[in-house]
# Entry
Amino acid sequence: MAIGRIGINGVTDPRQAYGASSIGQSGGPSFLNHLQQAMGKVDQAQSNRDNVVESMVAGEIGEVHDVMIAAEEAQLTIEMMIEVRNKLLESYNSIMQMQV
# Structure
């Protein structure tokens, strides 16, 4: 037994109204792809900081400012990712509180 779509008379599906065939198939990168790339950059900055600190401890890098720059870059990327997460949660909560 096949169950058809539930529709409300007079309400148009926005995907049909604006010509999109389905969600996520617009041809461009999805939000998930952008989020995964950003998380990869955060991980890369953290790994770079760890490598620079290990090199400093081993005596391979003599400049303290290189270590500080790598540490600050890693700190800023993680803070940015936390702020993005906070905004996403705030947006989700706002949507969930909307009355239908």
Notes: The chain is about 65% helix and 0% strand. Residues 29-97 form one domain.
